[in-house]
């Protein structure tokens, strides 16, 4: 089994270019040395309609994105998602930013997708045009992302929170996938990410009933990392982002990549383990 694990590790490292062809000389020194080059700084003064964006932290190394569509409870319409993708991309290109915090208001993180926008769309058109394709930009961001969730994170709101690497929650936060109440299912990765976070049984219960999970329950289940008083949540999330940003950018990206690859490695390894047991 040690040989199998070593071979899988070699394959994964080769795929990500971490070693040369001979697997003898790691290129970590070159990778980390690249961080000493002059930084690329990006202006974040763009005015958004549905977001409030800024740079936080003592060293100005944390990107903060606040969903700001209060009259619609931060429901996720296409223009909001487009702005979110733009803000995330700009922070990803800014070498001075080491981590990104995504939050909403104290009342609601995001109440879900914009039903008014979606109600007249038909499935063939939605599927053909990849209606939710752009939502994955947050999940594909290579820099560490933290969701600071106060209030409701329901449907698409819960899915967006789960696209982040870490979830911190206010003590009054509430999570759920209530799509079944509308005769549909989670459509932006909610079922898959929820199973990975809290296990099949709890995920099935939430998805099949439409029930909500409190912040305390979410922490106990593993969906949430920590719970804070409502008025302290964002500051605590920024502190976490500052700590992450103090480390090597390349090392942080590698850590994130390795953890996110874990699921694929386990799936790849299972048939080999099964064969080993038979032998």
Summarize the structure.
This protein is α/β, with parallel strands linked by helices. 46% of the residues lie in helices and 15% in strands.
Task: Chart the SSEs and their pairings.
Elements: H1 2-15, H2 28-33, E1 51-56, E2 62-67, H3 78-93, E3 99-103, E4 108-110, H4 115-118, H5 123-128, H6 137-140, E5 145-149, E6 152-154, H7 156-163, E7 166-170, E8 174-176, H8 190-198, H9 200-209, E9 212-214, H10 215-221, E10 226-228, H11 233-245, H12 249-278
Parallel strand pairs: 2-3, 3-5, 4-6, 5-7, 6-8, 7-10
Antiparallel strand pairs: 1-2, 8-9
Walk me through what this model shows.
The chain is of the alpha/beta class. It is 46% helix and 15% strand. The protein is built from twelve helices and ten strands. The protein has helices spanning 2-15, 28-33, 78-93, 115-118, 123-128, 137-140, 156-163, 190-198, 200-209, 215-221, 233-245, 249-278; strands at residues 51-56, 62-67, 99-103, 108-110, 145-149, 152-154, 166-170, 174-176, 212-214, 226-228. The strands form two sheets. It has a six-stranded mixed sheet, with helices on both faces. A four-stranded mixed sheet has the order 4-6-8-9. Helix 8 crosses helix 9. The chain is globular, with a radius of gyration of 20 Å.
């Amino acid at each position: 089994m040690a040989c199998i694990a070593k071979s899988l590790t070699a394959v994964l490292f080769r795929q990500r270019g971490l070693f040369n062809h001979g697997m003898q000389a790691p290129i970590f020194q070159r990778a980390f040395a690249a961080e000493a080059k002059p930084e690329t700084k990006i202006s974040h003064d763009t005015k958004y309609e549905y977001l409030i964006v800024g740079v936080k932290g003592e060293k100005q190394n944390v990107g903060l994105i606040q969903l700001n569509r209060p009259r619609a409870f931060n429901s996720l319409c296409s223009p909001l998602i487009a702005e979110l993708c733009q803000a995330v991309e700009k922070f990803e290109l800014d070498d001075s930013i080491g981590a990104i915090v995504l939050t909403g208001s104290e009342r609601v993180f995001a109440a879900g997708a914009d039903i008014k926008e979606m109600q007249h769309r038909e499935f063939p058109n939605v599927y053909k045009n990849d209606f939710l394709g752009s939502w994955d930009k947050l999940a594909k961001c290579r820099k560490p992302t933290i969701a600071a969730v106060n209030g409701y994170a329901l449907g698409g709101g819960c899915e967006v929170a789960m696209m982040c690497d870490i979830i911190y929650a206010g003590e009054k936060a509430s999570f759920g996938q209530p799509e079944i109440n509308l005769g549909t299912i989670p459509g932006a990765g909610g079922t898959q990410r929820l199973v990975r976070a809290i296990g099949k049984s709890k995920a099935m219960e939430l998805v099949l009933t439409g029930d909500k999970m409190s912040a305390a329950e979410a922490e106990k289940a593993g969906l949430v990392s920590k719970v804070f008083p409502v008025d302290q949540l964002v500051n605590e999330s920024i502190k976490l982002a500052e700590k992450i940003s103090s480390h090597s950018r390349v090392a942080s990206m590698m850590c994130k990549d390795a953890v996110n690859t874990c699921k694929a490695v386990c799936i790849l390894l299972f048939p080999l383990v099964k064969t080993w047991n038979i032998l």
